[in-house]
Amino acid sequence: MRPLTEDETKVFFEKLSKYIGRNIVHLIDRSDETYYFRLHRDKVYYMSEALMRQAISIGRDQLISLGVCFGKFTKSKKFKLHITALDYLAQYAKYKIWIKPNGENTFLYGNHILKAHLGRITDDTPEHQGVVVYSMSDIPLGFGVTARSTVETRKLQPTDIVAFHQADIGEYLREQDTLF
Amino acid sequence: MDQFVLPDNQLLGKEQVETEDLPVISQRIQDIIEVLNNFKELGDHERGRSAYVEQLIKDMAVYYGYSEYLLEKLFNLFSVSEALEFFEANEVPRPVTIRTNTLRTRRRDLAQALINRGVNLEPIGKWTKVGLTIFDSTVPVGATPEYLAGHYILQSASSFLPVMALAPQENEKILDMASAPGGKSTYIAALMKNTGIIFANDSNKERTKGLVSNIHRLGIKNTVVCNYDGREFPTVLGGFDRVLLDAPCSGTGVISKDPSVKINKTEKDFILLPHLQKELLLSAIDSVDAKSSKGGYIVYSTCSVTVEENEAVVNYALKKRPNVKLVLTGLDFGREGFTNYRGKVFHPSLKLTRRFYPHVHNMDGFFVSKFKKFSNKYELKRKNDDEDHKVSKTKIDK
Questions:
Q1: Domain residue limits, chain B
Q2: pLDDT tens digit string along B211-245?
Q3: Where is the PUA domain positioned along the sequence (chain A) (predicted)?
Q4: CB pairs below 8 Å between A and B: how many?
Q5: Res. B12 pLDDT band, cuts 50 70 90
Q6: Which residues of B are documented as binding site for S-adenosyl-L-methionine?
Q7: Is the predicted ipTM greater than 0.90, yes or no?
Q8: Which CATH number fits domain A2-88: 3.30.870.10, 3.10.450.220, 3.10.20.30, 3.40.50.1370?
Q9: DSSP string of B39-57, one letter each residue
Q10: Catalytic one among B114, B124, B245, B303?
């Protein structure tokens, strides 16, 4: 477990800001307690100072996970956000999409979001913007990237894609072996 | 009614080879139980009670598909008619139960959401505010959007109990020694409202995957997952406010879930497992800080009903660690633990422990005990023990 290098931080924050923009500050400057991002075996974890201090006693090989995993660095040093970061993304998301009940399952199987399933979308969402996906009852289901801006989605056919799938909570079942 | 006559051994040997006729055996089990319940009048006093019991154990082992060794062990825990109820209950699956994740939702809201999806459910009982029993469902309960969003976890009713007994408080430091797949650890986190620190340990690295998955799905943020042999504590880390040890066990309480236990547990398992359990329990006790302001508690539980893995282990710990005592578990149901069993006498405080049975409580067979550690030191007495040991050893040598 170690702090992120400058380069890693840059790559990581760039990715994160696609979804929560300047709200990243709220993750770093918290009023309740100091929180840190730490790297352990290519994965980035987010934890309170108290948790970090205690976990120092755990050996490198025996430490499996701590706090909340945000994602991991790929071999080519890109950062991939994992579904496990959803809690924080949903809390600070700038742009959101709500999908209708009949679209919940297709999205949870890893499919893109079609116009027919679109319930609501934040006004003025630009094209290719990171968005957090919710059910109509405000349960966060995953996140993705918009295919069109809010204005343009109005002109789309029901079968056209409004947002590309990136991660969904169905991965807790589908990807359990690779994700953790 | 004709009086039942116990078949003699020669006849029986023949029968066993030729036919394994279950209705006949079933009838004989009924008959023998009837005789045993009123042995004075119905029994054959020449051959004695033990002959009947011996035959009964043989028949039950065939009828229910157990090894004779295990069946006898379980049979001895109960009265004759109760034993039959126990074995019958092991043939029937326990109801599917779920635990509401109070970090994400409330039980009422969750119940409503699931009912809307076509799930038929009801609260488990008065003793828990977070459990729901699932009767039937038109959708897979382990894959609904609510499940994936971490609003609940599939968890057997019995495994609520050790956490309730542990009664974790906010801002404490807690160790769950054998935690995969995380039902209990995440319950602890929910009771602590995501404050404090939980160390969720498991010795099996493969099983920690499911544990990490559950922790994230349920939105737990205060947990460190580690992969040690439980016996390495407190060398790794000590000073915990509370420790939960849900020990690896033979699983004689969950036979309805895993029937392979019926045949694959041998005498050796009931020597090796208690040995491991004793070592783990001592480690658990040593990992707790007695000076903790609200804590200083250890909960030892197993999903087994045998005395070797439960009362005997607890009794051993009481002897080896005079700085702990048993306290009430805080569970207002369940049977009292044994204070003596087949000639073995345990510490009288063992009646504070609790046993749960499938045929009585309609949950998996389970054992829960709770210790309070009142001092961090116990050196003096142990030294004496060692000296005694040495003395006796030298005597033998001479």
A1: 9-89, 96-155, 159-373
A2: 999 999 999 999 999 999 999 989 999 899 999 99
A3: 95-170
A4: 95
A5: low
A6: 178-184, 202, 229, 246
A7: yes
A8: 3.10.450.220
A9: HHHHS-TTTHHHHHHHHHH
A10: B303
